[in-house]
Every structure is written in C-alpha cells, then in structure tokens.
C-alpha cells in the first residue's frame, strides 16, 4: 500500500471514530505531511449522518472525455493560431513595408489557408464547447474530468508563455529602435489572442473546481 493510501485510510478510520479534524491534521503534520497533503486527505471526506465519513466525488478519467476535450482544445488552439496568422497577413496589407515583395501585398495563399482552417475549426470548437457545457450540466461527473484539468493547464501554460514572450519582444523592439506601428499591431494581436485563451481556460478550470 502506498503512503498516500495509508494516509487516506488513517483519515477515514479517524473520522469514523469521531476524532476532530484538527486533531487528525495535527497528527499528520507531526509525522511530516504537508498542509496541502493534509487538506487534500481531509477534503476527500464529508461529515455524514452520525459522524460517518462520506467520500466526496473525485476527478475522473475516461477515454470519451479524453477524446472530446482533446479535440476541443485542438480546435481552440488551431482557431487562435489561424486567427493570428490571418491577422498578421491583414496587418501586412494595412501597414505595407517597402521591403515586401509585390505578391505579398494582396490576398495571399496564407490568407486563403487561414480562412479555410477557420471555417472548419471555429464551428467545431463552438459545437464541442456547447456540447461539453450541456454534458456538465446534465452529469456533474463531467465537471471533474482530470483530462480537462491536465489539457487546460497545458494550454494555460502556453498562453502565459505567449504573453511573456510577446512582452519581451515588444521591449526588445523598443530598446532596439524597431518599434513600428506594424510591429505593435502584431504584438497587440498576439497579446489579445493569448489573453482571451487565458481567460477562457481560467473560467473553464474554475467551473470544474465548483463541480
């Protein structure tokens, strides 16, 4: 039996005997368990009738959830990526550079490719997002998906990294004297896209924590 399993068994038995949570916490802390580990162990149990500990629902992992959330976050990432790509192309047209080749100033293949992908990925993301909302409302277990938590935090990390790198690029361009309107527009687009992803995922994670 793993240490965590022995800890959880100890907590359950102590709660069943009517031991106060403060005493259980102090006993676990005396042998080296951290506050976060103690809180997690005690948080698995609710007070039931007659002081009997009742297990709380825990995050679940299912192949169906992994597939749906995987496709959902893929569609989200692709949508944001191609929105940025299309935005960069439009910024190049709106703020032309004398060094650009003539063929780059019109409706390029990059714009067509971005639009084609957005026509597929944006409706797919909206459809899957709506479906997952309905699933979580009809089945509370859907809000405890560990797959969503893992994938969501990975995308949160990527969004935070994009915001940080974007800020570094703007500062570097400013210090180098290369801060043009074109550059600022592209940096603002990246920051806005990453910020929207960050807010969406933070809301999604908070909703899962309340489920």
Automatic annotation (TrEMBL):
Transmembrane segments: 66-91, 111-128, 149-175, 181-201
Keyword list, A-Z: Membrane, Transmembrane, Transmembrane helix
KW Transmembrane helix (keyword) present: yes
Residue span(s) of domain DUF5671: 65-200
UniProt xrefs under InterPro entries: DUF5671
Name under which the protein is recorded: DUF5671 domain-containing protein
Organism, scientific name: Roseivivax halotolerans
């Amino acid at each position: 039996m793993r240490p965590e399993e022995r800890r959880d068994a100890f907590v359950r038995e102590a709660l069943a005997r009517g031991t106060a949570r403060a005493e259980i916490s102090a006993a676990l802390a005396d042998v080296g368990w951290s506050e976060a580990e103690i809180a997690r162990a005690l948080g698995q149990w609710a007070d039931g009738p007659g002081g009997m500990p009742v297990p709380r629902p825990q995050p679940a992992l299912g192949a169906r959830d992994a597939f749906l959330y995987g496709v959902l976050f893929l569609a989200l990432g692709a949508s944001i990526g191609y929105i940025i790509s299309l935005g960069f192309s439009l910024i190049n047209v709106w703020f032309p550079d004398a060094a650009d080749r003539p063929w780059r100033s019109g409706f390029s293949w990059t714009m067509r490719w971005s639009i084609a992908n957005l026509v597929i990925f944006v409706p797919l993301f909206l459809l899957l997002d709506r479906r997952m909302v309905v699933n979580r409302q009809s089945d509370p277990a859907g809000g405890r998906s560990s797959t969503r938590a893992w994938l969501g935090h990975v995308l949160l990390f990527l969004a935070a990294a994009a915001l940080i790198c974007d800020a570094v690029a703007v500062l570097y361009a400013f210090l180098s004297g290369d801060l043009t309107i074109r550059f600022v527009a592209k940096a603002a687009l990246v920051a806005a896209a990453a910020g929207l992803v960050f807010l969406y995922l933070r809301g999604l994670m908070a909703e899962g924590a309340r489920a």
